[in-house]
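Subject: Sanity check before I submit

Could someone independently write out the C-alpha cells for this chain? I want to compare against mine line by line before I put it in a report. The sequence has 454 residues.
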Amino acid sequence: MQNSGLFRSAQRWLSRTPERSLNQAYEAAQMIEAIEREYFGGNPISARYGSYGDSAMAYFQGELKKYLNLIKVRMAVFRASRSVARVSDPRVTEVQLPSTGADDLAVNVIDQQAMFFRKLQLIDEVLARYDRLEANPERVITLANGGNGEAAPSAQVLRSRADQARIEQQNGAIAAAPASEGKRPAASDRINVLPRSILRTVDRIRQDLDPNAEQEVVQEFRTSKGRTTAAIRFVLLLVIVPLLTQQFTKNFVVGPIVDRARVGAEEQVDVFLNIEMEEEALHELQRFEERLRFEVLIGKAPALSELNIEQRVRSKASEIEEAYRDRSASAVKNVFADILAVTAFVLLLLYRKQDVANLKAFMDEVVYGLSDSAKAFIIILFTDTFVGFHSPHGWEILLEGLSRHLGFPANRDFIFLFIATFPVILDTIFKYWIFRYLNRISPSAVATYKNMNE
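---
Independent answer below. Compare away.
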C-alpha cells in the first residue's frame, strides 16, 4: 500500500510538471512586466528608457537576466514534460475583477488549453521583446519640436525600414497618435529611408546647435573623469592592500609568533624544511671547503693545517645553519602572511562590488576603444607569453619560485603535469572567448589577428 501511494504521488507530481513549469515561467514574465510598468513607463528594461545610475541599472539588468533565464529553463522543462506527461483538461472557473465603475463581477469559464495559450502568449511576447532588443539596438535622438527651436519633450526612436517592417509584422500596424494631442508624426514615419550616415550627421548638427551641449559635454567629461579616477584608485587598492597586509602580518603578527615558537623548541625544530634545502646547504659547504683548499694549494692563501681548515669549515657550517634556519622560518611566515593577503584581496572584491563594476566598465572601454591592430597585438602578446611555444619555461620558473617562496619542495612531476595541462586549458578558454564574444563585438579585430598570426 505504501509503495502504491508513493507511486501515485510520483505520477501526480509528474503529471503536474508541465503546468507547474508554465506557471513559474508565467510568473517570471509577469515580474518583468511589473518592473517595466513601475520603473520604465511600460518600456523594455534598458538604459535608454530610464534615467538611473549605474548601480540601479546593474540591479535591473541582473533581475531581468535572472527572470529571463528562469523563463527559458522552465519552458524547456515544460516542453520536455509535455512530450511524456498527459495533461488533464478540466474546466476552470476564472473570476475577473470588473473595471472601474462596473458593479458586477464578470465570471468566465476558461478551459485548460485556453489558459495555457494565454500564458504562452505573454511569455513569447516578453522573450521576443528582449531578443529583438538585443539583436537590433535602436538609435535614439532628440529632434526639434516646433519652429521655435525648443527641444522635443521626448526622444524619438529611429528604426530602419527592415526593422520597422518586421516589428509591424509581429505586433500589427502601429496606431497613429490622435490629432487632438497635437503631436507630430513619429520620426520613423518620415526619415526611416535615410542612410545611417545622414542620421549621424543630423544628430551631430543637433548636438552642435543645442544650447545645453557644452554643459552636457562638461558633465559627461566630469562623470568619465570620476569613473576613471575611481577605477585607477581601486586598482591601486587591489595591489597595495594585499602587499601591505602580507608585509605587516609577516613582520608584526605572524613573524613574532613563529620566532618565539622556534626559539622555544630550537632543539626539536629541524633546520631544513625539505630535502632540497638540505642538499643546497651541503653543496654550499662542500664548495667552500674545496675553494679553501684550492686557494691554499695555488698559494693564494697562507698555508693552513688540517685543524685550521676544519675550524674554518665548522665556522662556515654554523653560518649556513643560521641562514637556513632564517630561510625556513621566513617560508613558514610567508605561508600564513600570503593567506591573509589573499583574504584581504577577496574581501575587497566582495565588499566593493560597485568599484568592481566601475573597473570592469573602465577595462571594457579601454580594451574595446583600441584599434584593431592594437587589439590583435595584445592578443598575440598574451597568447605567446602564456600559451605559446616558449611559455613552458616561464611557467616552470614561476612554479619553482612559488614553491621556494612557500618552503615546499619543487615537485618536478607536478610541475610538468601543470605545464602539460593548464596552458592547454587556458588556450581553449581564450579561443572560445574569441569565437564567442570578440568575433561578435569586433569582427575586424579577429580578422586582423588571424592575418597577423599567419
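---
OP: Matches mine. For the report I'm noting this point. Residues 292 and 298 are 10 Å apart (CA to CA).
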